[in-house]
Amino acid sequence: MKKPALSLILVAAALRAQSSHLTWSDYGGAPDSAQYSALTRINRSNVSKLRVAWTYSTGDTNKYFFNPLMAEGLVYVLAKNNSIVALDAATGKEVWVHPTGPNNTLITNRGLNYKDGRLIFAVNNQLQAIDAKTGKLIAGFGADLREGLGRDPKTIPLVQSTTPGKIFENLLILGSATNQEYDSAPGDIRAYDTRTGKLAWSFHTVPHPGEYGYDSWPKDAWKTVGGANAWGELTVDEKRGIVFVPTGSPKYNFYGADRLGANLFGDCLIALDARTGKRLWHFQMVHHDIWDYDNATAPKLLTIKHDGRVIDVVAQAGKMGFLWVFERETGKPVWPIEERPVPASDMPGEKAWPTQPFPTVPPPFARQKFTADDLNPYITDPAERSRFRDAMLSARNEGLYTPPGLRNTVQMPGNNGGANWANAAVEGDKGLIYVVSKDLPSMLKLEPDGTKAAALTGSPEEQGQFLFNQNCVKCHQTLPGAKRNREAIRNAIRTGNQTMPAFKDLTDNEVNQVASYLLNPSRAPAKTGQPDRYKSSFGFMIASNGLSAIKPPWTSLTAYDLNDGSIRWKIALGDAGDLRGTGTHYPKVGPVVTAGGIIFTGTRDRKVRAIDTDTGSIIWEAEVSQPMEGMPAIYEMNGKQYVVFCASGPNNPSKPTGTIHGEYVAFALPD
Q1: Helix, strand, or coil here: 390?
Q2: Which of 23, 119, 307, 486 is 20 to 30 A from 48, comparing alpha carbons?
Q3: % pLDDT > 70, the chain
Q4: 108 in a domain, yes or no?
């Protein structure tokens, strides 16, 4: 039988994409999370004529980054102290309000799920549904999301994600937000019946005995270790019945002595059978994550022409600035991925994984190193520049996988950098993907968890061993060999010795304990069981003028052609105050691409923009009342196409100032 021509296959893929992206009844536009609209009434030729069609005030001073939903002729938004509000899609007039509780109520606040006339969401760990036409609560529907995790639900403070799940057939597939601490809940992926709210299946991201990946953790880690969760966005391939799940780091984020091993399924892209939860394949982007390099962006589905073949692929953008591309059904990388040696950890008890995977193609979309030569030229105060430079030169700074330790380490693009939630959109039938990323370096340092007094137990030698491990082992990998008396040791600790600094914060009793250990180390046998715990003290490297310590651009939009793995164009996205072409600072914005040749996105500089997909040039912009977060929604009503933005972000997340008076703003072409 003669095989169909490649061009016909691509045309068929394009038609499927068009038919499934004509409305916005799902977070991200559709089950495939494409952030794509097939509508064309607004296009390159007329986008400059866009005008405000309607606005709706949020009615409070909260920040929102909600992706509006459109169904039943209504637009659903979050406003009025976390209430769900239905608006007339053509006029923005309020139709009904469903309060979710007090202002401090935790709700799925980035979007909602819609299915068969119901809106489904979570409030304070409780799965709920309301009637989409009336806003009335549907009695008898729901579940406690803390149940079924192998832990006492009373010990789990948080498990619901602020990101909605994905609907497949009659299942709502959910990830979770397990908090960032030791002993957090495991990040099981679960599916619930959309008619009853009952649990249908679970996939353990911290494997149980007998499950694949169990041996990548210490024995019975699933009972105590949490995380490896999908707090970000999921993607469904409806044709194949596959849900693609990007997971984050195991907890605790920055120290993993209690979870030695590769830690599957942390920091993975997992392909699951959407009907059963069975694992089909996975790829781990970070082995034994101690950097908080979560996968948060929705996996993106594209069809590419590569080496003479038409391939359906899934692409995952990550915090490290990498774009990973796999064949959808098998998980085979489209281009080689190399395991390369990375720096070792010098932390007590920690064992960083010796290698990490590096994609060879496509090239990274974010900067992955930060040195003193890259300091922001807009930091003009000489003393401040000197402080940043000294901090950089004294920190451990060996690239992406510099392990956190007892002295400062540089992270670049940072654990809050690279691509985060909502940061990518695709023209899937063309093999084109557009990625928003931020370069936000941070400085990370580990410190003992809790007070020293709580940790110091046992003989003076054992207590001295603990203090030595906290303060000295980073330089003294082995015990000092010279014979010394107690007074000499005390003096060295108090005043320093050659290159050794003085430790003036230790009490006299603590100094004596260290001396006891060094004089009699055999009385302090190596500890067994639970390792000592550490917590991170880290901060974004921000100057006094509120800008990043690294030179711009701080936010970028990169266009890739995945047919050959190349970058088509790259631009700085937005402006920082009066600084043009720098990219805005600290954004969490989602682009939406349209069949009209336009990328729509908002930015933190209070601008909404239309960007030409071919060139990256700005072809329209307008100012709104507040900074932007999240992604817009695009839909058609009564023959008119609307683009709706949520303008309700904080003015400056690093230094919050001013009161937020947010609103939803709909743009359309004039009648």
Answers
A1: helix
A2: 23
A3: 91
A4: no
Q: Among candidates 513, 396, 523, which has minimal Cα distance to 463?
A: 513
Q: Give the chain's domain count.
A: 1
Residue range 250-279, pLDDT digits in tens:
999 999 999 999 999 999 999 999 999 999
CB 310 within 8 A of CB 9: yes
Number of Cβ within 10 Å of residue 14's Cβ equals 17
Cα–Cα distance between 66 and 68 in angstroms, integer? Answer: 6
**What is the 8-class DSSP label of residue 422?**
T
- Rounded Cα distance, 7 and 3, in Å: 11
Domain assignment present for 361: no
Q: Does 553 sit behind a cis peptide bond, omega within 30 degrees of 0 on the bond before it?
A: yes
Residue 48's SS3 state is helix
Q: Which domain, by its residues, includes 488?
A: 450-532
How many other β-carbons are positioned within 10 Å of the β-carbon of residue 327? 17
Residue percentage of the chain with pLDDT more than 90? 74
Quote the CA–CA distance of 553 and 550 in Å, as a whole number.
9
- 456 has pLDDT over 50: no
CATH number at residue 512: 1.10.760.10
Q: b or e along 458-474 (b: 16 or more beta carbons within 10 Å of the residue's beta carbon)?
A: eebbbbbbbbbbbbbbb
First-last CA distance in the chain: 53
**Which of 212, 272, 214 minimizes the C-alpha distance to 247?**
272
User: pTM of the full predicted structure?
Assistant: 0.87
* Burial profile 93-107: b = 16 or more Cβ within 10 angstroms, e = fewer: ebbbebebeeeeebb
Name the band, by pLDDT with cuts 50, 70 and 90, for residue 1.
Answer: very low
Q: What is the mean pLDDT of residues 440-447?
A: 92
Backbone angles phi, psi at 188, to 5 degrees: -55, 140
Identify whether 467 is part of a domain: yes
Contact present, 317 and 296 (Cβ < 8 Å): no
Q: Tens digits of per-residue pLDDT, 94-153?
A: 999 999 988 778 899 999 999 999 999 999 999 999 999 999 999 999 999 999 999 989
Alpha helix (H) ranges present in 529-618?
none
- Whole-number average pLDDT of the chain: 90
Higher pLDDT, 8 or 661: 661
Quick one: three-class SS letters along 455-489? HCCCCHHHHHHHHHHHHCCCCCCCCCCCCCCHHHH
What beta strand segments (E) does 80-156 contain?
A: 83-88, 94-98, 113-115, 118-123, 126-131, 143-144
SS (H, E, C) 488-536: HHHHHHHHCECCECCCCCCCHHHHHHHHHHHHCHHHCCCCCCCCCCEEE
Q: Is residue 296 part of a domain?
A: no
Counting every residue written for the chain, the total comes to 671
Q: What is the pLDDT of residue 469?
A: 67
3-state secondary structure of 537: strand
User: Are 646 and 630 within 8 A, CB to CB?
Assistant: yes
